[in-house]
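Example record for the data management plan.
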Amino acid sequence: MRTFLMHSKTNSRQQGSALIVMIFAIVVFFSLAALLININSRSQQSVSYEILGTKALWAARSGMEHAIQNVLPINQPAALCTNGSTTVIDFSGVDGNLQQCTASVVCASNFVSNEGMKHAEMQSTGTCIAGDFRAQRIIKVEVKI
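Corresponding structural encoding:
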């Protein structure tokens, strides 16, 4: 009988440590769950920035194409752009994916090359804003007139 009593005392001590191990395991699992939620949130934010950046690039490209069409109109003589002139294009009234975007095109300079060719340097900045997110992309082009 004596050995039985000693065994039951040891067993009751072990039951307290099992509770501590269980609490530790719960804390670890909740920490991992919080970490996974944070990683998922950052991943979604990264995708939002990527999409907005792509839209800003396409807004800049569209603005540049519009400016080049004004400098080099079809079936008409080429026209130089005015140094420092800025054209702003707002896509908010246009159907499609660029509704949150604008493009700002600046004619940086006009010059004549050594071969006597006229050139115009232009820069287009596409900006898209959606909530707290903002993306901006810049395209620079030199057009031979």
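Summary line stored alongside the record: Residues 25 and 31 are 10 Å apart (CA to CA).
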